[in-house]
Structures are given as C-alpha cells and as structure tokens.
Recover the amino acids of this structure.
C-alpha cells in the first residue's frame, strides 16, 4: 500500500471519530484549540529565536550559549507539547482536507527537518560552544531560525489553501 | 453614530488602493499574518521572561534589571512591527476587524499590558536610584502576573476576532 493511500485511509478513519464530530459540531471548539495552538507556537518560536540569535552571536552575547540554552529550553518544550497536542486536535477537525494540503504536508516535513537539526546540534555541535570561533553553532542557529520561520509561514498558509 | 463614522473610515481605507492591491495579490495577507505572529512570539516570550523573573520563576540567577534590559527593547520593537502589520491587515480588509467589539477590547488590553510592562522599567530605575538591593514587593509580583495574563488575553482576542459576530448594520 502506498504512503498516500495509507494517509488517506487514516484521514477517513479520523473523520469518523467522536473528536472529529465534536470539532465540526461545536462552534467554539475549533477557535479555542486554535488559540492554544497560537500561544504554544509563539512560545516555541520565541524561545528558539533566543537560542538561535545567541548561536549566531547576535543577542544575549554577555552570557555563555550553554547557559542561555539551559534557561530557555523548558519554555520551548512546554510550548512544543502544547503546539503538538493542539495541532493534532485541529487536524481532527478536517483530516481529509489537511492530509491533501501541500502546506500541511510540507509543514510536517519541515518539522522533521527542524527536529533532525536539533538532534544534530545536541550530538555534534553543542560541544563546540566553548570555542568562540567555531562556525558550526552559527550555521546550526541560522538553519534553525530559517526553518522555524518557514514552518510558521506554512502553518498560516494552510488556513488560506484548504 | 460610531457605526457611521467607522463605515466612512472603512470606505476611505477601501479607496486608498491598499485593499485593491491585497485583493489582487494572494500572498500579501498570509505574509502579513505570518509577520504578525512572529512579532507576537517576540512580545509573548520577552514579557514572559520579564514577568516570570519578577515573580521568581525564571532566571533567578540574573538580576531583574538584567532581564528587563535584555528583553524590553526587542518587545518594544516587536510592538512597532505589530502596529505596522496590524494596521496593514485592517487596511487590507477594512470591514473585518473595525466593526467587532473584540477588536477594540483587544486594543484596550494592548494599551494596559504595554503600560504595565513599561512600569517594570520605571520601578527598576527607581530601585537603582536608591542604590540598595530591595526585595521584590508583592504588589509588583501581582502586576507582573496581571501583565502576563493581559498579554495572553490580547493573543486570544486576536484569534477570536475572526469568529465573533460583527455589529448590527455593519458593512459586510
């Protein structure tokens, strides 16, 4: 069975769940989860921006990068948990529409890339933070900031292309 | 009365050419909304750091001064970006926000939240002038909590403008 077929089967299955029916029947449900999604994604983007700008050497330069990361990461994870949960609920409101939308699928792919970038950072780049002339942290921060900006953009574009 | 006045204003906005430009160019509104959300992220996280430091949750190893200094400028710059992108979004679809009470409530909340955020700077300056390390007063912590809740209220109102009913007799 092809990936597309599987995704389509999954979407049709979700469309029949109680959650999906609740989201289409109750007018306040969708905007409420959307509000949670916006607040959460702002936590994710804003906190990641702090770290990325530090890695790029453009902000918070008075403090070691490791310390900035430690102080900021909890906010990123709380935001990410909220965004992933509310995002999954929002998907249930129109699973067939989203699963066929270019920007939705693109956003998932970009999220996977951002995740890979983060894993790569923790495995290979983080140990170079003490070296002020290291270029890997800068590249890592630049890629991350660009990816998350496009992810927010794709998210907004979904609403206009469904 | 207000309705008439706003209708004239919306009509005038419609003749400025912005509305036509946006209607003919698909990507302008989503691009402005993306910029708007990115700036909201800066305001939310910046004020969260300031307010949670005052309450004593985040960055306890740093002085309140240092945290206020670090985030106040980005927050104020992001507020300018928000006023600019928000203004363009209103001009792009003049009938969308102006005739909904929630839009005006949101503007009121923004004024309150901004003043409360700026008050942290004023207190910091006063405390520094006294040149003694003073503990953070409970009133100030309460102000920080209120400020934090106001900003979350602003964001929520922003999202709900798209869903609430317009006033009766408003142009569609």
């Amino acid at each position: 069975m092809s990936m597309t077929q599987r995704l389509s089967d999954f979407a049709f299955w979700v469309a029949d769940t109680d959650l999906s029916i609740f989201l289409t029947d109750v007018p306040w449900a969708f905007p409420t989860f959307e509000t949670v999604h916006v607040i959460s994604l702002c936590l994710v983007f804003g906190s990641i921006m702090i770290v990325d700008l530090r890695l790029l050497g453009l902000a918070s330069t008075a403090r070691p990068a490791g310390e900035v990361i430690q102080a900021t990461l909890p906010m990123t994870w709380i935001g990410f948990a909220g965004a992933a949960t509310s995002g999954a609920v929002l998907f249930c409101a129109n699973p067939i529409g989203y699963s066929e939308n270019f920007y939705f699928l693109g956003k998932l792919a970009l999220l996977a890339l951002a995740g890979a970038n983060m894993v790569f950072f923790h495995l290979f780049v983080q140990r170079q933070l003490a070296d002020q002339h290291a270029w890997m942290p800068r590249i890592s921060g630049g890629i991350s900031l660009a990816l998350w900006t496009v992810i927010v953009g794709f998210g907004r574009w979904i609403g206009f292309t469904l | 009365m207000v309705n008439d006045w706003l209708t004239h204003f919306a009509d005038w906005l419609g003749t400025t050419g912005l509305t036509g430009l946006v209607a003919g160019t698909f990507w302008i509104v989503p691009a402005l909304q993306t910029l708007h959300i990115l700036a909201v992220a800066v305001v939310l996280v910046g004020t969260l750091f300031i307010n949670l430091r005052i309450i004593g949750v985040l960055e306890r190893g740093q002085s309140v001064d240092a945290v206020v200094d670090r985030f106040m400028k980005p927050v104020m710059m992001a507020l300018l970006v928000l006023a600019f992108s928000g203004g363009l979004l209103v001009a792009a679809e003049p009938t969308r926000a102006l005739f909904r009470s929630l839009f005006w409530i949101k503007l009121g909340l923004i004024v309150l939240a901004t003043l409360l955020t700026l008050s942290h700077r004023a207190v910091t300056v006063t405390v520094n002038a006294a040149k003694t390390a003073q503990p953070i007063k409970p009133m100030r912590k309460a102000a920080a909590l209120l400020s934090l809740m106001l900003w979350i209220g602003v964001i929520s109102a922003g999202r709900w403008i798209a869903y609430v009913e317009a006033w009766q007799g408003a142009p569609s």
Notes: The first helix of chain A runs from residue 3 to 15. Chain A touches chain B at residues 27, 31, 34-35, 38-39, 41-43, 45-47, 49-50, 59-60, 71, 75, 149, 152-153, 156-157, 159-160 (CB under 8 Å). Chain A has seven helices and no strands. The mean pLDDT of chain A is 95.
